[in-house]
Amino acid sequence: MYGPGMAELYDLLHEARGKDYRAEAATVAGLVRARSPRAATLLDVACGTGAHLRHFAELFDKVEGLELSEAMMARARAAAPGAVLHGGDMRDLALGRSYDAITCMFGSIAYLEDTAELASTLRSFAEHLAPGGVVAVDPWWFLETSLEHHVSGDTVTVGRRTMTRVSYSEREGRTSHMVVHYVVAEPGSGVQHFAERHTLTLFTRAEYEEAFTRAGLDVVYVGGIQSGRGLFLADRGGRAARG
Ligand SMILES: C[S@@+](CC[C@H](N)C(=O)[O-])C[C@H]1O[C@@H](n2cnc3c(N)ncnc32)[C@H](O)[C@@H]1O
User: Fold this and answer.
1) Per-residue pLDDT reduced to its tens digit, 60-83
2) How many Å from the N-terminal Cα to the C-terminal Cα in the chain?
3) To test ligand 1's pocket by mutation, which of 47, 56, 91, 111 has the most ligand atoms within 8 angstroms of CB?
4) Which of 48, 82, 89, 180 fits as disulfide partner to 167, beta carbons 3.0 to 4.6 Å?
5) Average pLDDT over residues 151-180
6) Which domains are seen in the chain, by residue range?
7) Percent of the chain whose pLDDT exceeds 70
8) Residue 13: which of 78, 106, 90 has the closest Cα?
9) Local structure of 48: helix, strand or coil
């Protein structure tokens, strides 16, 4: 999962498919600041290639990232050179400091396997939250909104490289199995093909909300944004719900 081949193509493919990381970072920063106007420090959990982090770096005084895949983190280092990056697993978050904002974007939270992991991970997010801080989680599709089968495909040309990404997702109970195939062609280099497999948990909206509550956080769900997946905002003391 998220090896070097994937890391190299990740931003090119998602941006070419219309994902606007700058706009998403601005939206999340705006929602955080509406609840915590002086928010200055941010941790992006499962930051991937740093595609949000590089924009968060323009919007917050100090930004940090945490990422499991070394290949993805190498890209993040280049994308957000001012950010402190931590290699590690969000399930064992123990950074010894706190942040005004903690984000976890683009469904990364769904790599957690069950509600016990979801609850303990959100509890550790809460433990890393500075007083008045806000957690923002961009979830994967809910069990109730996920499709039984889903196919997507895009071909993009960037510079001399033409890339095709085709994905097939299948739901099995509370799990979404996604297989992604990549074909990359470049004059002089020929054609390369590789595939990756992802297993994502389909939590219900109520399970997310319960896990935030069990972590001692008040949570609100903002629907419609993040390509329809929505966004959870949570804090201690109910400002997330009021903002
Ligand atoms: C869909 S990508 C999202 C990356 C980035 N947040 C974005 O919006 O482009 C999911 C990321 O989660 C990371 N990841 C998966 N499980 C993780 C874990 N347990 N702890 C930390 N990162 C994890 C993967 O390595 C990958 O970079």
Assistant:
1) 999 999 999 999 999 999 999 999
2) 37
3) 111
4) 180
5) 93
6) 4-142+204-242 (3.40.50.150), 149-201 (2.20.130.10)
7) 97
8) 106
9) coil
